[in-house]
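Input sequence (348 aa), recorded before submission:
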Amino acid sequence: MNEPIPVLVAGDHFMLNRLLVESLHAEGGPAAWRVRELELPWPHLPFGRVEEVEEASGSQERLIEALAGVRVCLTQMAPLTARVLAACPDLELFAVGRGGPVNANLAAATEHGVAVTFAPGRNAASTAEHTLGLMLATMRRIPQAHAGVVAGRWDSGMYAYHATGLEIAGSTVGLVGAGAIGRRVASALMALGAEVLVADPYADPASLPAGVRQVPLAELLASSAVVSLHARLTAETAGIIGSAELASMPRGSVLVNSARGGLLDHAALATALRDGHLFAAGLDVFDVEPLPADHPLRGAPNLVLTPHLAGASRAVAERAARLVAAEAGRWLRGEPLLHRANPVPAAR
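Predicted structure, C-alpha cell format:
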C-alpha cells in the first residue's frame, strides 16, 4: 500500500479548511492523504502584497513552517514566493482556488519544478448575479427607497415621473467583455427582455447567447441605457472607460462594474454623476481598495457601492474547494492537470 501523501490545506475564513479537507477526501479517499491544516486570516485581515506576490494572506514564515515535508498545498491566499519555494523543496503542487494565481510567483515555481493550478469560473455565477443585483438596485433606486423607510419616511414622491427608475425590459444593455461572467449576464438580461450588445474583440460569436449582437465599443457606448464591465484588466483594457467614453453614453444611462476597478476612471465617473449625465452607477470594484476617505466617489450622487463582494457566496467557496481538490486528485493519479498556470507537468 502506498504511503499517504503529505498535503497542506491552507484555507481561510471564506474557503474553509473543512471544505478543502472534505473535497480532498473525495479524491482518492482519506487514506490517500496525510493532511496538515493552516488557517489564514483573510478576510478578517485584508489581503495584500507579500514580497513579490499580490493579494496574499498570512506570513511566509508560517507557510514555510507548515509546508515542511509537504508535497501538495491547497489554498486560496497563501503566498507562494521565491523565498517559500527555496525553503520547501518537497513541494510539487500548489493549487490555488481562485480565478488567477496572483499570489504565486509562477516563474520561481517553474524554476523549482512546482506546478501551480488555479480555479477558472469558480465565481462566474455569483458575480453574474451580483451584477444583476447592482443593475436592479441602481435602475430602481432601491437603496434610496430603503434608506427613506428606515429613516421613518414614506417617500411617495419617488413615484413622480422625473424621480422614477428605469426598467431592464425593453432597454439596450451593453456588456464590455464576453467571458464566462459576461455570457451569464447576457443570458439573464435576454430572459428579462433586454436587447444585449457585446463589445469584445476576442469573443467567438458562436459562444454568445442567441440574439446577442457583437459591436464595436464606440457603438455599444452610444447605444446602451446600461453599460456593464466584464473585461479582464490588462495593459490594453486599463482605463478603457474614461471621461470621453462616459460622455459618449446617452444622458440618463447607467454604468455597472463588478470586474476590475482599473478599467474605469473613477474621477470622471464622479463628475458624470454630479453633473447628471449619468442616472446612476453600481460598483463592486474600485481603483483603490478599501475606498479612501478622500476618494472622488465619496459624496457623488446615485451610487450603489459594495466592497468587492461579487464573488462572496457559499457556493463559490464550495466550488473552489472542489476545483483545487480535483487537481490534487489528478496529480495523485499522474494525470494531466486541467488548469495549470505554469509549464510544470503533474508528477508523482
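Checked by second reader. The CA atoms of residues 261 and 287 lie 4 Å apart.
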